[in-house]
Amino acid sequence: MASSRPDLLQGTLDLLILKAVALEELHGMGISRRIGQITNGTFEVKAGSLFPALHRMEEAGWLSSSWGQSETNRRAKFYCLTKPGRRQLEAETDQWKRISLAISSALQAT
Amino acid sequence: MSVWSRISNVFRGDRLSDEIDEELRSHIEEAIANGRDPDEVRKKFGSFLRHREESRDIRLLVWFDSLRADLVFGWRQLAKKPATSAAAVLSLALAVGASTSAFRLIDALLLRPMPVAHADRLYAMLTRGTGPDGSFRTTDSNEYPQFRLMRAAVRDDAEMIAVSWVERADLTYASDTEMEKAHRQYVSGWMFSAFGLKPALGRLLNERDDLTPKSHPYAVLSYDYWTRRFGQDRRVIGRTFRMGNDSLEIVGVAPKLFTGTEPGFFTDIFLPTMMHAGVTHDDWSWIRTFIQLKLNGSAERVRAQLQAIWTTVQGERAKGFTSWPAQRLNRFLDQKIVVEPAAAGLSEMRQSYRVALEALAVIVGLVLLIACANAANLLMAQATGRAREMALRVSIGAGRSRLVQLVLVESALLAILATMVGGLFAWWSAPFIVARINPADNPARLVLPADWRVLGFAAALSVAVTFLFGLLPALRASSVKPSSALKGGDNPHSRRRLMHALIAAQVAFCFLVHFGAGLFVSTLKKLSQQPTGFSSERLLTLETVAQRPQATEFWYQTADHLRTIPGVDRVAVAGWPLLSGNGANGFVAVNGQPPGDVLHYFLNVSPGWLDTMKIPLLDGRDFRPDDTVPGTRNATAGVAIVNRAFAKLNFNGENPVGKSFDRGKQHYKIIGLARDARYRNMREPITPTAYVPLRYTAPETLGSATFLVRTTNPNPLTVAGIIRREIARARPEFRVSNIRTQTEINEAQTIRERLLAMLALFFAGVGLLLAGIGLYGVLDYSVLQRRREFGIRIAVGAPARNIARLVTLDVFSMVLLGSAAGAGAGLLLKPYIKSLLYQIASSDISVFALPALTILSAVLLAALPAVIRAIRTDAVAMLRAE
Asked: Is there a contact between B407 and B474 (Cβ–Cβ < 8 Å)?
């Protein structure tokens, strides 16, 4: 099952995480679940790549974190988008659109 | 923000780890709570530790974190052995401090540019050639009329500035009874603007203050003097003071950082050159000449112009030297003008102390090397104890470079601690040395700020020291072979070989330091033991000035009055004390022949002077009160008492009494022959000297002279106060301006030698101590290493002397090697310090024997504990332990 899933493209993980926390603040588990939902289960983010990415993005100032209660009443770290993070999301979205447009037009060419 | 948070995260590393752990754990629990199988979750999650490390490395600066870890670890290592660490830090601190101190002195005296505008374009005019005595010499003096011509000639290329020597002068402020001393320097009025200096108060001198002789009675105080003497009182502007016959008005205060142009002295009072009597004399050499090049000026063009003027002016002057022999005339005219950079200023002290300071720098540098070798040996011995630790680190994947970093960080910690302690030492010791450069009544003063130059030097030194003593042990530690080290069988011999090489180096450096110290000490001893030819015991010298020149009669009467004071044995008057640095000289002609080449010295003395000084009169008679010297206005005959050197030179050693000689136009009849006594200094051979009466035929007055009082009290200073008062009471015009004992004056002759000998001895002691400790450590370590071997040897019946030989053989050969190398280096370096030495022959075996003996006995002492320990090795216990 896992083998049928495509690997995340380089750089798309950041975009997906930013997108996932764009609506509301989420903890790590929530982010990985949300990514599963919004990609219709195409991507599953492993903890091993999720947490380093989260910490890196927090260091970059795109995310901010705070401790809170999870829905199962556990202490968990919640991440939310910062202003630079929102700008980053917009920039990466634009860039992704250009890339996907270019790739699809390349594939449609005969 | 990012870098900063990553740096700050380094300091909350544990909390960071906890936070990451908690987040990861809650993630797993969350997954389990969502109904997933716990085992599957954990398996899928992978290595918890790896995830944590990964996140951690993102959240902080990795290299900074490892540095922090090494620092903490290094500190623990040092704290674990406080005694050895303290010994290493202290010995390094002493050496680093001494080096920094030496740098401060050299920087202040020789290198640091003056705080003036365009110091990089500042040059000095020097004259180079053969002196009257046939020796090659460089002088920096100039005459004012010639300076004027020169300044006008080079106007397009450069500005020229004349400054006088800094001298201690008497002055009075409000009342004439309170005479004080200040360092006075005559300077060109335009110096301040050329140097771009702004007044701290009032105004500075300018070109218009320096036009006409004796008509610009204005003075500028230095900031330091203003602070010391007036407590920065702003009302000092407009105040007047008397100096000699001049009444001068204070017009301003110079900026704080400008202390004059003569390193070694702080000028207190700046006066225009026009106030100096020498400005109109073409034969008074009293100024030094600075040349400030214009932006596109050429130093070579300036030099050529100066040489042309010099040749013309001096050629004209030489036409008047009719009595000079041709050779001296040629030498005089054959001098070359040199233009040299002088950003740091000009002073005599630079010349007299340059070599001494350089020798001192070499000595402290050697001590630093000894200390570094010591610390390296110490670390190396420790590294052996830590071989297993290092091997373990390598086994679990530490890179070699991380190990080097680990050990180097430890060395750096030692070096930084040492530099801090050494900084304190340098902060205290540099002024301590400066205060001992000149006689106590006129101490040298140098600007010794702790600025970026000094701090930079100390920092660079500490880095250099870290690598000097840390790199070898670090490379050693990192090259550990885990397989053999963990088995406990690393080859100990290679390590010992390196330590032995360090011992040899230490001994060589130590020998060199001792060799130098020996040379300086015996120089001082030889100089101090030079007979002066007179007695300095209980002799007080009182330099006295008269407000108006007084008839010689009154000086004699005052001397008579002093003789009646209880506690006074004998009293005489002379122009100045012997060996005080003052002197009058001239060329002498006998039997109507042209004058010879040798400078003869003259001293005006009162009747009874020879008796007071205890210089025996060998023949003839002493002066009588009515004996006279030919004055300047007429050319009657005078009388003189000459010394043996005089008689030997001019009369082939025959009794000169009854004969006569000429000095210029003055004719002298010799009435007595005195035993030789030193006049100028302790180094030169005794100069041919003529003592002449104090009384001139005309004008028969004296402005200043020195009373010489031999007291009955062993400490002549106890009656100094009474005598000073009695002099003023006997003649109200007299003011005592300086009181010194003759012993003080004599000791001032050897001040540089005393200082050098004292410092060299001190550092020789330190070097010996360090080398001894180092040797002890190495021997002790090697005995510890070879315990098994000794145990077996003793068990099979080796006698104690064999064991002792085994322990010491290597080391003693190293000591011999080191001593030989040190002696060789000493012989090579000795010519460089020749000017500092006195009467020391190269063939003198004691200069080598003494250091060799000292070092050998120190080596024996250091080796003894290790030898005893080796002999006492308990064979049974040792072998059982294996």
From this structure: yes
Contact in structure between B46 and A47 (CB atoms under 8 Å) = yes
Residue written as token pair 């190269």: B842
**What would the mean pLDDT of A25-33 be, rounded to a whole number?**
86
Task: Report the complex ipTM.
Answer: 0.80
Q: What is the distance between the alpha carbons of residues B341 and B119, in angstroms, rounded to a whole number?
A: 9
CB atoms near residue B428 (< 10 Å): 11
What pLDDT is stored for residue B503 in this prediction? 86
Tokens of residue B63, six digits? 């290299």
**Residues pairing with B427 in the sheet:** none
| Residue, of B617 and B780, whose pLDDT is higher | B617
Are B30 and A70 a contacting pair at CB < 8 A?
Answer: yes
Tokens 């000035």 found at: B545
Q: Which residues of A touch B59 (CB under 8 A)?
A: 55, 59
How many Å apart are CA B508 and CA B366, to the nearest integer? 9
Q: Confidence band (pLDDT; 50, 70, 90) for A8?
A: low
Give the span between the Cα atoms of B673 and B622, in whole angstroms: 9
Report chain A's terminal Cα–Cα distance, integer Å. Answer: 33
The pLDDT value given to residue B665: 80
Compare all CA atoms of chain A with the CA of B58 and give the residue at the minimum distance. A56
The pair phi, psi for residue B774, each rounded to 5°, is -60, -45
Q: pLDDT tens digits, residue range B64-105?
A: 888 888 888 888 888 887 877 887 888 888 888 888 888 888
CB nearest to A55's CB, from B44, B45, B58? B58
Residue numbers in B near A61 (CB within 8 A):
1-2
pLDDT tens, B464-487?
Answer: 888 888 888 788 777 777 766 666
Q: How many domains does chain A have?
A: 1
Nearest 5°: CA angle at A73, between A67 and A77? 20
Structure tokens at B285: 């050499």
Q: Are the C-beta atoms of B185 and B172 separated by less than 8 Å?
A: no
* CB pair distance less than 8 Å for A72 and B45: no
The Cα–Cα gap between B282 and B312 comes to: 13
Instruction: Measure CA of the first residue to CA of the last residue in chain B; give whole Å.
Output: 59
Structural domain of A38 = 2-108
Q: Which amino acid is at B163?
A: V
Q: In 10 A of CB B467, how many CB atoms?
A: 15
- Residue labelled with tokens 């004439």: B176
Q: How far is CA A91 from CA A84, A95, A97, A100, in A?
A: 10, 6, 10, 14
